[in-house]
C-alpha cells in the first residue's frame, strides 16, 4: 500500500509532465494590417477645386445679375414707351368721330402695340356731365369703339383691344364750364 500511495502522486506528476510536454504552444497572434487611408489630395488640388467652385459661383451670380439688369431695363423701356404712346384723345360735343388732330396719337398707339406684341390695352370712353346717364354711357361706348376700329384699321388685332364706357361717371377734370367739358369728352388708353 505504501507503494500505491507513492504511485498516485507520482502518476499525477507524470501526467502533468506529459500534458505539458504534449501541449502545442498557442500560435502567436497575427498582426492585423493597418487600414490603408485614402491619400489626401495635395493641398494645391484642394485649393484649385475650391477656387473653381468659387469662380463658377461668381460667374453664375454675375450672369443672374446681368439678366436681372437687362429685364429691369426692358421693363423700364416698356413703361416709358407706354407712357409716351398712350395719350388720351378728345371728341367734339355729342360726337364719336375721330378728329384729324388725334389721328397721330392713335398712330403712336398702333406703333407701340406693333413694337410690343404681347401688350394689350383698354380703351375707356368718357363724356362730359351734360346728358342722361344712359345717353352718356352709349356715347362713351361709341367713342371707345371708334378708337378701337381706327386702331384695327392700322393693323392692331381686336383681341388686344378691350373697350369700356364710363359715360360721365369718371370726369378727368372737375368743373362746369366748356374747358372742363372738353377735357372730359375723351378716350383713355391704359395697359391691361
Topology, please?
Layout: H1 2-22, H2 43-85, E1 89-90, H3 103-115, E2 121-126, H4 133-153, E3 161-167, H5 178-184, E4 186-191
Parallel strand pairs: 2-3
Antiparallel strand pairs: 1-4, 2-4
**What strand line-up does the widest sheet have?**
1-4-2-3
Q: Unreliable runs, pLDDT <50, ≥5 residues? A: none
- Tell me the Rg in angstroms: 49 Å
Structural class: alpha+beta
Strand content: 5-15%
Helical percent range? 40-55%
> Alpha-carbon distance between the termini?
130 Å
CATH superfamily of the domain at 78-191: OmpA-like domain
CATH class of the domain at 78-191: Alpha Beta
Please report the number of helical segments.
5
CATH 2nd-level architecture of the domain at 78-191: 2-Layer Sandwich
Give the integer mean of the pLDDT values. 87
Q: What's the total count of β strands? A: 4
* Structural shape: rod-shaped
Reading the helices and strands in chain order gives HHEHEHEHE
Protein architecture, described:
The chain is α+β, with helices and mostly antiparallel strands. It has a domain at 78-191: OmpA-like domain (60s Ribosomal Protein L30, Chain: A). 55% of the residues lie in helices and 11% in strands. The chain is built from five helices and four strands. A four-stranded mixed sheet has the order 1-4-2-3. Strand 2 (121-126), helix 4 and strand 3 form a beta-alpha-beta unit. The N and C termini lie far apart (130 Å).
Amino acid at each position: 500500500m505504501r507503494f500505491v500511495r507513492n504511485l498516485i502522486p507520482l502518476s499525477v506528476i507524470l501526467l502533468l509532465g506529459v500534458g505539458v510536454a504534449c501541449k502545442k504552444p498557442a500560435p502567436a497572434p497575427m498582426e492585423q494590417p493597418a487600414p490603408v487611408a485614402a491619400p489626401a489630395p495635395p493641398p494645391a488640388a484642394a485649393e484649385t477645386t475650391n477656387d473653381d467652385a468659387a469662380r463658377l459661383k461668381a460667374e453664375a451670380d454675375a450672369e443672374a445679375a446681368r439678366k436681372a439688369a437687362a429685364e429691369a431695363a426692358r421693363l423700364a423701356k416698356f413703361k416709358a414707351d407706354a407712357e409716351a404712346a398712350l395719350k388720351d384723345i378728345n371728341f367734339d360735343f355729342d360726337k364719336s368721330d375721330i378728329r384729324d388732330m388725334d389721328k397721330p396719337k392713335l398712330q403712336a398707339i398702333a406703333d407701340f402695340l406693333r413694337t410690343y406684341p404681347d401688350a394689350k390695352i383698354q380703351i375707356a370712353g368718357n363724356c362730359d356731365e351734360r346728358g342722361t346717364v344712359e345717353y352718356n354711357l352709349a356715347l362713351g361706348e361709341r367713342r371707345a369703339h371708334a378708337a378701337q376700329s381706327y386702331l384695327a384699321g392700322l393693323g392692331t388685332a381686336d383681341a388686344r383691344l378691350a373697350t369700356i364706357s364710363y359715360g360721365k361717371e369718371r370726369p378727368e377734370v372737375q368743373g362746369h364750364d366748356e374747358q372742363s367739358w372738353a377735357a372730359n369728352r375723351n378716350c383713355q388708353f391704359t395697359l391691361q
